[in-house]
Amino acid sequence: MAEQEIARELLNETVTYAESSVCRHKLLLHYFGESYEKKDNCGSCDNCLNPKVKFDGQEDIKLALEAVVSTKQLFKSKHIAELLTGKKNRRYKSCPTRQKTSFLGLARTMISAIGVPL
User: Fold this and answer.
1) Does the model's pTM come out above 0.85?
2) Number of neighbouring beta carbons within 10 Å of residue 86
3) Is the C-alpha dihedral spanning 113, 115, 116, 118 positive or negative?
4) What count of other Cβ atoms lies within 10 Å of the Cβ of residue 98?
5) Other beta carbons less than 10 A from residue 42's beta carbon
6) pLDDT for the residue numbered 38
7) Do 112 and 94 touch, CB atoms closer than 8 A?
8) Does 44 score more than 80 pLDDT?
9) Can you tell me the mean pLDDT for 39-62?
């Protein structure tokens, strides 16, 4: 492996650790080849004290995939996200298909339901 590939892999592992919702003690012990003896979480790390909100994302994914198919897969993920959150920008106005309006802003209610600011 090249040095850049190794550095990228280490960076990806760090990002995975930072974004994980699993108990930090469990993750660190697992990383070093040990197991966490307690059945429950530690109760003292950031993930145990402030658990991340979990939600069923099946409807969100279905909506996003329908938007991609509806726009004939012509746009990147950023445009689809803007479409679903209701942002009307230059790309929206130049979009040749009018099917986009059926998805405009539909994700707003889903996003606000889980408490994520737009």
Assistant:
1) no
2) 14
3) positive
4) 7
5) 14
6) 82
7) no
8) yes
9) 87
Q: Tokens for 85?
A: 């959150």
Burial class (CB within 10 angstroms; exposed 0-12, middle 13-18, buried 19+) of 84: buried
Ramachandran quadrant class, 34 (left: phi over 0; alpha: psi -120 to 50; beta: rest): beta
The SS3 of residue 6 is helix
Task: Report the C-alpha gap between 18 and 13 in whole angstroms.
Answer: 9
Distance of CA 47 to the CA centre of its chain: 17
The angle subtended at Cα 76 by Cα 73 and Cα 77, nearest 5°, is 105
| 55-82 residues labelled b (16+ CB within 10 A) or e (exposed) | eeeeebeebbeebbebbeeebeeebbeb
For residues 71 and 65, what is the distance between their CA atoms, to the nearest angstrom?
A: 10
Residue type, 64: A
Q: Say which residue the tokens 């130049």 belong to.
A: 94
Q: Which residue has the tokens 């950031």?
A: 46
